[in-house]
């Protein structure tokens, strides 16, 4: 690792106004954005798949092994891999065998693919607000959204926040609707001692190119219910599996599962350092709530005090290659013909306008990278 001069901490810095050269002695290192990272175990898995010929098979050992390992790691009966996390949501919805036009509840601020998956399954979205502390569906809004047509709720863990799954499960069980738990952004997180993706009827994972575990593309559903697994398989069957994960993709996911907990711990450690260094800016950059459970950080969210600040920060970051981006656009502008809205959805609107997101690769770098980012944010936000 190269020797780098660390930027001065605020306690050590001169009382004179800092210049860019004083506070940021070197430019942002593009290598801090590298993902996926070089990994000998992945290289060996690729070579083994080549040598045993499994890379080119419809049916080989890697997919079967991955499904068994995913089920074991998550403590569920069944795991079914597929071509993407978005497709996994659609497969999960189809496994419910719901009548066309039935309603599915989701947060008005969520991943766009979840809204589209509901529509593609012939179902109708119902929008509720988010908890402003976690960016996840507000459990207190769920009861008011449930009608006689409701069959399910999609609950996403977003931006380092974890949804209140126990409360959501209780409401869903009371009204007899299914919970689809989208853990695509929370790989390896734990809620009440259970791994994210195992607290609903169906859990969703993603192995997309930017995710904490990546195969370039890919996803999986998790469930304890035999009937849901059977319907999921029937939906995927088109003479052959229409939404497969390849043997080669399965091969590279397996070694990453072994390293996930260690890497999640390092990401959490570095985020704690970053958040500590930014505490003085909390009135302008409010971080996602760090709950007592064990989060994982594919993204880390801050809510800016103004939409203009969020715009300025993301524009400046993009120009310098810094991994800060905008949040989702949300669904609150969708017409009534496309979704039923419960309330005015104020927190979802704020999140869409004022969220900035830190992408995870920098969190596996050294402390210098974390401190550089903290100083950059302090310079952009704190000196006004």
TrEMBL record:
Modified residues annotated as N6-(pyridoxal phosphate)lysine in this record: 211
Gene Ontology MF term list: pyridoxal phosphate binding; transaminase activity
Disordered: region residues: 1-27
Biological processes per GO annotation: polysaccharide biosynthetic process
Family matches, as SUPFAM superfamilies: PLP-dependent transferases (SSF53383)
Keywords assigned by UniProt, alphabetized: Aminotransferase, Pyridoxal phosphate, Transferase
Annotated Pfam families: DegT_DnrJ_EryC1
Metal-binding among keywords: no
Entry annotation: catalytic residues: 211 (proton acceptor)
Skewed-composition ranges (Polar residues): 12-25
Signal sequence residues: none
InterPro entries in the record: DegT/StrS_aminotransferase, PyrdxlP-dep_Trfase, PyrdxlP-dep_Trfase_major, PyrdxlP-dep_Trfase_small
Family membership: Belongs to the DegT/DnrJ/EryC1 family.
Name under which the protein is recorded: Aminotransferase class V-fold PLP-dependent enzyme
Organism whose genome encodes this protein: Bremerella cremea
């Amino acid at each position: 690792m190269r020797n780098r001069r660390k930027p001065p901490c605020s306690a050590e810095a001169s009382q004179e106004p800092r210049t860019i050269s004083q506070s940021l002695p070197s430019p942002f290192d593009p290598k801090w954005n590298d993902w996926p990272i070089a990994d000998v175990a992945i290289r060996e898995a690729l070579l083994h798949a080549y040598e045993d010929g499994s890379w080119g098979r419809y049916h080989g050992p890697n997919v079967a092994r991955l499904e068994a390992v995913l089920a074991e790691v998550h403590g569920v009966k069944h795991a079914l891999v597929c071509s993407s996390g978005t497709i996994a949501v659609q497969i999960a919805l189809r496994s419910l065998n719901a009548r066309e036009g039935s309603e599915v509840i989701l947060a008005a601020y969520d991943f766009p693919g979840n809204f589209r998956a509901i529509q593609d399954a012939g179902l109708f979205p119902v929008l509720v607000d988010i908890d402003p502390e976690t960016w996840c569906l507000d459990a207190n809004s769920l009861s008011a959204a449930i009608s006689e047509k409701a069959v399910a709720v999609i609950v996403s863990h977003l931006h380092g926040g974890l949804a209140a799954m126990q409360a959501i499960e209780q409401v869903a069980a009371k009204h007899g609707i299914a919970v689809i738990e989208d853990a695509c952004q929370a790989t390896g997180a734990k809620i009440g001692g259970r791994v994210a993706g195992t607290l609903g009827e169906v859990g969703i994972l993603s192995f997309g190119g930017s995710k904490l575990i990546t195969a370039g593309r890919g996803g999986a559903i998790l469930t304890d219910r035999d009937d849901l697994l059977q319907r999921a398989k029937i939906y995927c069957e088109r003479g052959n599996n229409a939404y497969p994960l390849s043997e080669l993709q399965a091969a590279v996911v397996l070694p990453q599962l072994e390293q996930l907990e260690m890497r999640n711990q390092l990401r959490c450690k570095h985020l704690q350092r970053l958040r500590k260094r930014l505490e003085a800016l909390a009135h302008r950059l409010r971080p996602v709530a760090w709950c007592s459970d064990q989060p994982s950080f594919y993204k880390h969210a801050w809510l800016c005090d103004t939409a203009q600040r969020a715009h300025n920060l993301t524009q400046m970051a993009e120009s310098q290659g810094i991994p800060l981006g905008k949040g989702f656009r949300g669904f609150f502008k969708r017409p009534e013909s496309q979704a039923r809205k419960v309330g005015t959805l104020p927190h979802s609107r704020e999140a869409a306008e004022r969220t900035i997101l830190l992408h995870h690769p920098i969190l596996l770098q050294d402390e210098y990278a974390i401190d550089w980012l903290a100083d950059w944010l302090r310079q952009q936000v704190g000196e006004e």
